[in-house]
Every structure is written in C-alpha cells, then in structure tokens.
Amino acid sequence: MARLSGWAIASGFGCAMLVARLGASGAAAEALAVQAVAWLAWLSAGPAALSSARDLAARDAKEGILALALQRGHSALALRSARGLATVSTIATVVGAPTAALAVLMVVLSDTLETAAMRALLGAAMLAYVLCLSVVLGAVARWASALAPRHGRTTFAALVFGPYLAQTIWQRVPSVPTWFQDLWAQLLRLAGGVG
Q1: pLDDT digits over 12-26, tens only?
Q2: Count of structural domains, the chain
C-alpha cells in the first residue's frame, strides 16, 4: 500500500509539474517536487515504518528463519542488524524511487543548463532528506518493536506522535515530525532559490 501510494503521489505531482511547464511557470516545478516529498513522507514512509514496527524476531523464529541463520553461522545479533537495515531499505525504496523520478523530471523540464544543474542539486537534497527520513523512521520502528514486541505499532505511533502532541503544551519537546518539518522547510527555501 505504501509503495502504491508513493507512485500515485509522484504521478500526480509529476503531471502537475508538466502542466505547470506547459503554462510557462517553470519555477513551479521545484516547489511541486518539494511538496511531493512532504506528501511522500507522511503517506508512504509513515505507513511503511508503521508496518515494520512489529515483532519480526518472533515471526523469524516461528518460520524457521532464525534456525536457518544460526545454522549458517550467523548470530542472532547479526539477524537483528539485518532486520534494521531491511527496514531502512524498505522505507528508502518506497519513498526514494518516486522522489528520484520526480527529481529527474524536474531536471528534464529545465530551460537552461544552469537551471538543470541547480535542480539536480535540489534533487540530491531531496534524496538526502529521504535517506535521513528512512534512517530515523526505521530506527524508531525497530526500537518500538524491541520495546513492546506485541504492541510495536502502537509504541511506534506513541514515540512519533506523543512528543509532537506534547508540543502543544511544552514547545521545547523534541519530536520526529517537527524535526522533519524543519528540515522540509529548509528544502522548500532551497527550492525557492532555484527557480
């Protein structure tokens, strides 16, 4: 579902970029691409991380994956590390592929070589944002699963949204959504300087 929503969002914003280009509003491409990244973060990365916040260790033990890994000489710690990397990889793929497609489209729609170079840098910044998002959400998802194996998804939601909601009372409470909103705002400012 997260993969499908990612490509649906990218398709919609890609069409909007093409329409903006036909309407001679080339500067809109950057803003649309950065807006798409925000949508991808909430509607693709979030559900992918939420689905990863479950007790994969119990499932691996039940399905015999743990026994097979131990038989092949891998430790339980190595398997836990592999689960963490797989979670980050899944989130990065779900969000990164549509983001890369939008970045390429943004560069292709450039009028000049200078604009194309600036948009390529913006595309690289968008992909760096996606990588940071994937690492943080993947780590929180695996941590939530370790804290409460039977209730990993609930714990994930509490870890991500609890501090965010607490900010309504105490503004200095750090939260994952606020940090990424600030990072996204920086990306949006960068996009404003490209066009």
Answers
A1: 999 999 888 777 665
A2: 1
